[in-house]
Amino acid sequence: MRTGGAAASLEQSKPERRHASGMEASMEAGGPRRRLVHLDLKGAPPRASYLAEVLPLLRGLGATGLLLEYEDTFPYAGPLEPLRAPHAYSPGEVRAVLSQARAQGLEVVPLVQTFGHMEFVLKHKEFAHLREVKMFPNALNPHKEESRALVKAMIDQVMALHEDLQWFHIGCDEVYYLGEGEESKQWLQQQDNTPEKLCLSHIKAVASCVASSYPAVTPIVWDDMLRGISEETLAESGVPQLVQPMIWDYAADLDVEGKVCLIEKYRRCGFSKVWFASAFKGATGVNQSLTLIGHHLKNHLQWLKVASNSPADVLEGIALTGWQRYDHFSVLCELLPVAIPSLAVCLQALKNGGYSEKIKENVEKLLGMSNLETETFMSTSLGTFPGSNILTLVTQVSFYLKSSVDELLERNRYVTGWFSPYHRKRKIIHPIIMHHFQPDAVSLLSKWNAVVQDLQAAMEQVFHKCTVEEWMEENVHPSLQKLQQVWSEMCPTLPS
User: Fold this and answer.
1) Cβ(242)–Cβ(204) under 8 Å?
2) Catalytic residue among 174, 196, 316, 334
3) Catalytic site residue 174?
4) DSSP string for residues in 215-269
5) What is the pTM of this model?
6) In angstroms, rounded to a whole number, what is the distance separating the alpha carbons of residues 378 and 372?
7) β-pair partners for 318
């Protein structure tokens, strides 16, 4: 996962437009013409039925395509079947989603990790021998022929379910521990071999595989492994002629000048086009449950500045990333329905080349919300967009569940003074004390049981059972079970 930075002051000035040749190909109304919404399906993958509801909204908000990161939700078959999660989409569901995307005029770009972030593959015993470092399942060993065969098999299966692709994202970000495997250490002892050349050789091998089997498809790679490599090494590798780098940065105070310089470097190395990658969620905290729209809006306004200060013909498009986990093993961050208002604001800012009160009103209209707030988490109104009830209920839980339980159990003088864990364990409780806080406890437990029941029902409409269970265990059970435990210990002491 590519993480974001700290928030900075909101800059709402509209970027100056350039009128160079080729502007029409990459920019419109001051923003990138291609706007891909990234669906990170390695966590909380929505049901296909929910995606069918959401796709028309995405199109209406200004999306032109989807960046689909399937990970373990793709219906891999044959020798790759172990990669397939129990809740993976069926081939029919994938075809249905792709058909619905086409009907909405949304271009699809699949994303398959082929180097780093291979945990969903290398955690399995069948593929563990292909790890770069024996202990860690994140990076693929680039020296083994079997590694390349595995990557090709994954790409081929994904390609087989997709028609008329123009781009295919092969990942290749955050290849941690590259060069630390035994075979890599031996390779690096040879003259002129470096970790950078090792990285580039694998990217080139994967990109060449795509080019030879699917000549009409251009591979995209995350750019972080390329940034620190010298222009000479990049140019000599042959990689710039094979791939388009996707430059990612999720910070609210993104360094515009630094990004412009990086784009110029990539152009000098021979890359014909670049992509940008912003974030509409999943970049402000590994266990974040609510989305702070203001942070993500600032990030997109900064990217607009980068676009307006870069050569007009260099930008292919932008992907609005929506990370659902920081990596395969981390907890869930903001659920997709919770972040739809943020996505709406960011898409509209990109489409219009900036953000204004008029654009805010349009977003509110599209989402059916009476008051959209960007600088606080609080949502004061219900929306009509798919899954808006989940946003409302998650907001209640995130803001009030823990605080209300803590207020009762840690700051109520009768609980802390006469109903402490010490008293409860030894059952030395004066019955009359119960009357001072029992009504509050009963009311609180009843309220939260009802809210959680509503939330669970709403989530089950959108997500599979495993997602609902995970979210509840992480975000609800710690506080609710404390309250239920106190209630169960209270009951025997109540006078009949």
Assistant:
1) yes
2) 174
3) yes
4) TT-EEEEESTTTTTS-HHHHHHHSGGGT-EEEEE---TT--HHHHHHHHHHHHHH
5) 0.91
6) 9
7) 35, 276
Q: Which helix (H) or strand (E) holds 161?
A: none
DSSP percent split of the chain into helix, strand, coil, nearest 5: 50, 10, 40
Per residue in 431-455, pLDDT (tens digit) is: 887 778 888 888 888 899 999 999 9
How far is it, in rounded angstroms, from Cα 76 to Cα 88? Answer: 9
Phi, psi of 275, rounded to the nearest 5 degrees: -115, 155
Average pLDDT for 468-473: 97
Give the list of residues 6+ apart from residue 156 with CB closer than 8 angstroms, or none: 213
What per-residue confidence (pLDDT) applies to 356? 96
pLDDT attached to residue 9: 30
- β-bridge partners, 27: 32
Segment holding 301, helix H or strand E:
helix 293-308
The Cα–Cα gap between 416 and 180 comes to 54
Distance CA 12, CA 330 (A): 34
pLDDT tens per residue, range 326-355: 999 999 999 999 999 999 999 999 999 999
d(CA 453, CA 472): 11
Q: Encoding tokens for residue 266?
A: 């990539």
Q: State how far the Cα of 400 lies from the Cα of 379, in Å rounded to an integer.
A: 13
Place of tokens 């770009």: 109
- Distance, in Å, from the CA atom of 186 to the CA atom of 209, rounded to the nearest integer, reads 25
Q: Which of 124-138, 257-271, 334-348, 473-487 has the lowest mean pLDDT?
A: 473-487
Per-residue confidence (pLDDT) for residue 440, from 0 to 100: 86
